[in-house]
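Anyone? Bumping this.
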Amino acid sequence: MPRIVAPWTAERNLLTRSEEETDQSFGHNPEERPYPDLVRFGVINLDKPPGPSSHEVAAWVRSIMQVKQAGHGGTLEASEAQKPNAKEIPR
Amino acid sequence: MTGVLPVALEDATKVVQPLLAAGKEYVCVMKVHADTPESRVKEVLEEFQGKIYQRPPARASVKRRVRVRRVYYLEVMEVLGRDALFKIGCEAGTYIRKLCHDVGEILGCGAHMHELRRTRAGPFTEDEGNVTLHDVSYLYSKWQETGDESLLKRFILPMEKALGLLPKVYVRDSAVDALCHGAHLAAPGVTSLETGIESGRVVAMFTLKGEAVALGTATASTEEILKASHGIMVKNERVLMPRGTYPKLWRSKRST
């Protein structure tokens, strides 16, 4: 079976088309973005706890940080133990 | 289920889409429903590498038709009694619960997913900058008390990090604001670019300072873009940077 390379192990090199300088009087190196842009253009690498749904976790982040919007990147279902058992629901 | 769940804030929510489409890695405990030789469990699990066919489970939020998913690797770490611990790297939309079920079907005795932890979502891993909700709550309130921005930087990463697995095209300062207004990227605006770009692939357009400007679809390969003197190289699809961040150094057709 042909092995498929994971996107995170694929190697990539940078090739230059033309040398160019950037003007430091506007924009920011992303690592040095000052507040509030730091939050506005920020992402949190969160360790999801087992109970709540991914959606609930994103909502908690929204309320903790008092931001208008927060969205998660990829649903991780809530723990089985926390979910209603379909078999126990009367028909 | 626990593990890596990237959460994008405010304007950064625009990078959620590429994250959803990015590959994932999980560590899973599968329970086999009858005593089975370890070698057999291993053998069947390892068959689920490469292209696999999967029908989404009944509870899924997508249409339930068989679809192909790519499993980059599936490494069996330990088999103990009826429990099998394995690590899997796979394409977005691969259902691990379903994979365990299907392994059980092949074994004949049945199997189910017992525990699952996501160890990677696209460029984000559990080893690098992974924080808990408690960390977020503690560091945020500490920042509110002290105003020390380094506290925020301990758990907030720049949105550019979320685009880490997309091939990048770097553009000159004079092209940035046009892109912010939705223009497509023409050859003269490109200063450098990464290998692996092909026509039809999603690429990220970056400034020379390393800021994300927009996402788009390449209309040419890395080699072609490198040689091109004119023409649209990337179709702009999603602007990430607000207009006016860089000076307007372009003129609209109407004013010329």
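Late reply, but here is one note on the structure posted above: The beta strands of chain A are 14-16, 42-48, 70-72.
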